[in-house]
Amino acid sequence: EVFCEQARGLAAGGVDAICIETMSDLGETTLALKASKDTTGLPVITTLCFDKGPRGYFTMMGITPEVAAEKLGEAGADIVGSNCGLPISAMIEIITAMRSATTRPILTHVNAGIPNIVSGEIVYPDQPEVMAAQLPSLVEAGANIVGGCCGTSPDHVRAFAKAVQ
After folding, report:
1. 94 in helix, strand or coil?
2. In 78-165, where does DSSP find H-type helix?
3. Contact residues for 155 (Cβ-Cβ < 8 A; gap 6+)
4. 3 state SS of 108
5. Burial of 144 (0-12, 13-18, 19+ CB in 10 A)
6. Residue pLDDT, tens place only, 88-119
7. Do 71 and 42 form a contact (C-beta atoms < 8 A)?
8. pTM surpassing 0.70?
9. Cα atoms found within 13 Å of the Cα of residue 67, Cβ hemisphere only
10. Which residues contact 131 (CB under 8 A, 6 or more apart)?
11. CB of 124 within 8 A of CB of 153?
12. What residues pair up with 58 in beta bridges, in sequence order?
């Protein structure tokens, strides 16, 4: 019911689509997806966050990128993907894995690297040009929609747009 309430509010506000992002549990993501679809009929994007361990990439709940792409597509997601938590080089691997499991469009929002604390400030190390140089590889891996997450700035987005033109 909480997901339905949120979806109704977003739809009433005039959104064009709903993006359920930064998730880790397939069950919770599927509930949010179903609530959004049933309540609004709008297109729904679902993205999960992955970390790399000794056996590869998984969400904290043990979901692989391939399983996420397959199961969320089966559940009705219009677009699947991954966001946050990792630098662009790791996201290329994740998107490659997702593309192997789905024909649906894939979205990715990448961090500007892994943050460091410098003099009490959070600093993201990946400069716009560094990320933009890797963006074609992200698209070649299967990403249809690309953007920035933590640490990205308008300069990053401008560099991304230039890189994919």
Report:
1. helix
2. 88-99, 128-141, 154-164
3. 128
4. strand
5. middle
6. 999 999 999 999 999 999 999 999 999 999 99
7. no
8. yes
9. 16
10. 88, 110, 112, 152, 156, 159, 160
11. no
12. 51
Residue tagged 């992955």 (tokens): 50
Q: What is the pLDDT of residues 1-38, one digit of tens each?
A: 999 999 999 999 999 999 999 999 999 999 999 999 99
Q: Say whether 42 sits in a helix, a strand or coil.
A: coil
- Token reading at 5: 């309430």
Phi/psi of residue 127, nearest 5 degrees: -75, 160
Contact 91, 58 (CB under 8 A): no
Task: Name the residue type at position 44.
Answer: V
Paired tokens of 165: 């033109």
CA distances (Å), origin 108, targets 19, 39, 47, 49, 142:
12, 25, 8, 10, 10
Structure-token match 């469009």, residue found: 105
Any alpha helices (H) in 13-107, and if so which ranges?
26-40, 65-74, 88-99
Token look-up 């599927």 returns: 30
